[in-house]
Amino acid sequence: EERAARRKATYAYLKEHFKVTQFIMESGAKLSLPQNAMSSACVLYHQFWKGCDPKDFDPYLIGMTAIYLASKAEECPCKVRDVINVCYRSSHKDSPCLEINARYWELRESVVNCELLMLRVLGFRVSYDNPHKYLLHYLKVLQDWTCPGMWERSQVPQISWSYLLDSHHIPLCLEYPPAHVAVALLHFAVECVGLEVPSQEAVRPWWKALCSDVTPELIQSITEDVMDMYDFENKPV
């Protein structure tokens, strides 16, 4: 019953926000933002809805503002003009480019005002500990523990990184510690490709050696949330 309730909650959240998080990632890529900035934008977006009702605000405006805020928080600031133009093209693919007209100035004012709103809602906290650095560290350690030929053929780094990027469609990083998210998604990738990792100690599996406070239950819970996300994407409900 608990599993079914979690899946239902994940589906309900994705139905409301999946397209907007896609919009954030697409727009961030067009703005040439580094991956940590795009991930931070998604986290800011998810965090905003922890205290606000989607019926009260335009999700795409919140997403656009999250990109603008994250670019500044991650020290790769974008001009508000560029954010507006790129986001407008991402959400209006069949429309002509946005001119410097009344519509542009209306959007600019909305983003500036929304930035102040988001800062207040977020308690002026715009920096988060993302799982990326943990995953990079765990991948390096795991590479040292496995046979070089097997490691290169396994594509575990690419697969686990893809899982991490895709996981930003749901507020995973707000529900679990970033180190747990990183090791769980790495475990998921290792299991998917069937890579054999030697245990580093007789009493501890490799993932426990990487992150001592993670449990099998946590790994399963995080993995199931990500699997539900993929299931929703393939079979929307």
Automatic annotation (TrEMBL):
<dbReference type="InterPro" id="IPR048055">
    <property type="entry name" value="Cyclin-Q_first_cyclin_box"/>
</dbReference>
<protein>
    <recommendedName>
        <fullName>Cyclin-Q</fullName>
    </recommendedName>
</protein>
<keyword id="KW-0195">Cyclin</keyword>
<dbReference type="InterPro" id="IPR006671">
    <property type="entry name" value="Cyclin_N"/>
</dbReference>
<dbReference type="Pfam" id="PF21797">
    <property type="entry name" value="CycT2-like_C"/>
</dbReference>
<dbReference type="GO" id="GO:0016538">
    <property type="term" value="F:cyclin-dependent protein serine/threonine kinase regulator activity"/>
</dbReference>
<feature type="domain" description="Cyclin N-terminal">
    <location>
        <begin position="20"/>
        <end position="126"/>
    </location>
</feature>
<dbReference type="InterPro" id="IPR048053">
    <property type="entry name" value="Cyclin-Q_second_cyclin_box"/>
</dbReference>
<dbReference type="InterPro" id="IPR043198">
    <property type="entry name" value="Cyclin/Ssn8"/>
</dbReference>
<dbReference type="GO" id="GO:0005634">
    <property type="term" value="C:nucleus"/>
</dbReference>
<comment type="similarity">
    <text>Belongs to the cyclin family. Cyclin-like FAM58 subfamily.</text>
</comment>
<dbReference type="GO" id="GO:0006357">
    <property type="term" value="P:regulation of transcription by RNA polymerase II"/>
</dbReference>
<dbReference type="Pfam" id="PF00134">
    <property type="entry name" value="Cyclin_N"/>
</dbReference>
<dbReference type="InterPro" id="IPR036915">
    <property type="entry name" value="Cyclin-like_sf"/>
</dbReference>
